[in-house]
């Protein structure tokens, strides 16, 4: 008889973990308090970027390259286009940009160094802070996150031995499965991957290491040709941009709009942060049109306290947990899922240090 793994959560981590368990020969029960895939999951955005460069961090950059390759494998499994190749432009002081080009080369990525005058010439409609250079990584992509999650759920529905339990809230995880508000789902192993909703299922000591954040993002209807992902413009407020792909609007935001909150509530963007982003991108983009802002919404994510170690937790009794790791969880999701699935089905795997 095959092992059965109960996966709680149908965001990108839960869906990919379920896929990895199926590929390892296990049966899967996928449980979510919402629909499957979960429209309330942190990963259920229109667009997410997949890029390699993390300036000054060789380990994270190397892991990001592995994650990108893993996403390409997911694309092959699904038999659909997941990646939209747009490249990524990171702006930095000239010396740091040179170091970043060398860092990318050390992990097998050939990037272009754009000195300040070249940067201004190549992107004349962007008003970058003075003196910054650019690092252009042509391998970076944008993923239509919501469409990819729908495809993952459909892939799972078509597999024998996969049972789905939408709109089924889990109240406890045990050695023999999970207990719902009404009923139980049994299994040999349990994986908790329900993002912020996992906190009530985690031991208090682990839950205390997690901080909930809320961030405002603008949706912008742009007619840009050749616009890359810009993970950092070099502004003090940490402005960033994901260009429009596949019919989805561009995403505009800034790190300063992320703030700590205690509970999940609505997704309504405060006027203060909407106006801040409109002003910020009005200053950065010469062709910015406030009338082209089609919406503003808040999203949530979890971060772990600095230095608290891996976020993959063995809770004992066959229960594994991954609560999330900031905005980078989507990028690293295939690697996290492999690690969770390997633990669940008792396959040896080098420990994944899921870092923020």
From TrEMBL:
Q: Which domain of life is it from?
A: Bacteria
Q: Which SUPFAM superfamilies match?
A: FAD/NAD(P)-binding domain
- Outline the extent of the FAD dependent oxidoreductase domain: 4-343
Q: Which InterPro entries match?
A: FAD-dep_OxRdtase (IPR006076), FAD/NAD-bd_sf (IPR036188), MTOX (IPR045170)
A GO molecular function term, named singly, is: sarcosine oxidase activity
Q: Which Pfam families match?
A: DAO (PF01266)
Q: Which cofactor does it need?
A: FAD
Q: Which UniProt keywords apply?
A: FAD, Flavoprotein, Oxidoreductase
Q: What is the protein name given in its UniProt record?
A: Glycine/D-amino acid oxidase-like deaminating enzyme
Q: What organism, scientifically named, is this protein from? A: Actinocrispum wychmicini
């Amino acid at each position: 008889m095959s092992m059965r793994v109960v996966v709680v959560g149908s965001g990108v981590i839960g869906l990919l973990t379920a896929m990895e368990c199926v590929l390892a020969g296990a049966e899967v029960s996928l449980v979510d308090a919402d629909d499957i895939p979960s429209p309330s999951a942190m990963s259920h955005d229109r667009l997410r970027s997949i890029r390699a460069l993390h300036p000054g961090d060789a380990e994270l950059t190397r892991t990001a390259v592995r994650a990108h390759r893993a996403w390409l494998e997911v694309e092959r499994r699904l038999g659909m286009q997941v990646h939209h190749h747009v490249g990524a432009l990171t702006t930095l002081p000239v010396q740091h940009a040179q170091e970043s080009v060398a860092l990318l080369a050390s992990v097998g990525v050939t990037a272009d160094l754009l000195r300040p005058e070249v940067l201004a010439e190549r992107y004349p409609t962007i008003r970058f802070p003075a003196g910054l250079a650019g690092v252009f990584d042509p391998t970076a992509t944008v993923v239509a996150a919501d469409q990819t999650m729908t495809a993952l759920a459909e892939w799972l529905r078509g597999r024998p031995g996969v049972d789905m339990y939408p709109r089924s809230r889990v109240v406890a995880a045990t050695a023999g499965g999970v207990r719902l508000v009404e009923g139980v789902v049994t299994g040999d192993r349990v994986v908790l991957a329900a993002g912020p909703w996992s906190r009530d299922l985690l031991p208090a000591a682990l839950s205390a290491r997690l901080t909930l954040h809320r961030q405002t993002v603008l949706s912008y209807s742009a007619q840009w040709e050749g616009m890359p992902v810009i993970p950092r413009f070099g502004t003090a407020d940490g402005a960033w941009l994901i260009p429009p792909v596949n019919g989805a609007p561009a995403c505009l935001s800034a790190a300063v709009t992320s703030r700590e909150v205690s509970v999940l509530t609505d997704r309504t963007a405060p006027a203060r942060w909407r106006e801040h982003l409109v002003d910020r991108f009005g200053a950065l983009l010469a062709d910015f049109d406030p009338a082209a802002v089609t919406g503003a919404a808040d999203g949530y994510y979890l971060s772990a306290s600095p230095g608290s170690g891996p976020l993959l937790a063995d809770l004992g009794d066959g229960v594994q947990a991954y609560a999330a790791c900031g905005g980078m969880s989507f990028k690293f999701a295939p690697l996290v899922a492999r690690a969770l699935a390997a633990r669940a089905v008792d396959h040896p795997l080098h420990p994944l240090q899921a870092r923020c």
